[in-house]
Amino acid sequence: MFGKDDLVDNLSRDLDRARGRRDALASEATTLTAQIAEIEARLSEEKKRRERERVLSEVEAIKTRIKQAAGAFTPVVDGLSRAIEQAAAVVPEARELNSFLVSVATEIDSVLDPLLRELDQRADAVRTGQAALDLPSSAMEAPPVELPKDTNERLLRFPAWLSRDRETDKKDTAESPRSTAA
User: How many other C-beta atoms are found inside a 10 Å radius of the C-beta of residue 167?
Assistant: First the structure.
């Protein structure tokens, strides 16, 4: 009987140790679960912060490209306008092209400021976390602008006297007398 009591005592101690280890592991698992949740939350917040920074950087790059292109456009329009004025001395219809050019430049100027303000407002909304812009990973990779295939779709048209169709009409009329003479 003496050996049986030792066995019961040993088993009881083993059981107590196993329960203690289980409780310690459960406590550690709970602690680890809390730490994992905290790290996941910090990771998610960091990803959101980096995405906001990326979007803000892209918006700033877009604004910079717009301003640079507009800055390059203005001297070109000015130079073209002066050259067209000189051409108007020889071809009076050139004034139509000049007025067309001025209207294009005016239209561009009138929409640039509101566009830049809208970009600033969207950037502010992203900065404050009120909005998330869904920009591609790089706005630099935007697809090229497709020109309309049908000439009737164009918003801005050259004056009729500069139309390419007129040039083809001249060629057709110039070629037809030759073909009848031959």
Answer: 10
Interacting residues of 73 by C-beta distance below 8 A, sequence separation 6+: 105, 108
pLDDT at 125 exceeding the cut of 70: yes
Residue 149 φ/ψ, nearest 5 degrees: -80, -30
Whether the pLDDT of residue 145 is over 50: the answer is: no
Contacts of 139 (CB under 8 A, 6+ apart): 58, 61, 62
Burial of 112 (0-12, 13-18, 19+ CB in 10 A): middle
Residue 154: Cβ-neighbour burial (10 angstroms; 0-12, 13-18, 19+): exposed
Q: What is the mean pLDDT of the chain?
A: 80
pTM above 0.85, yes or no: no
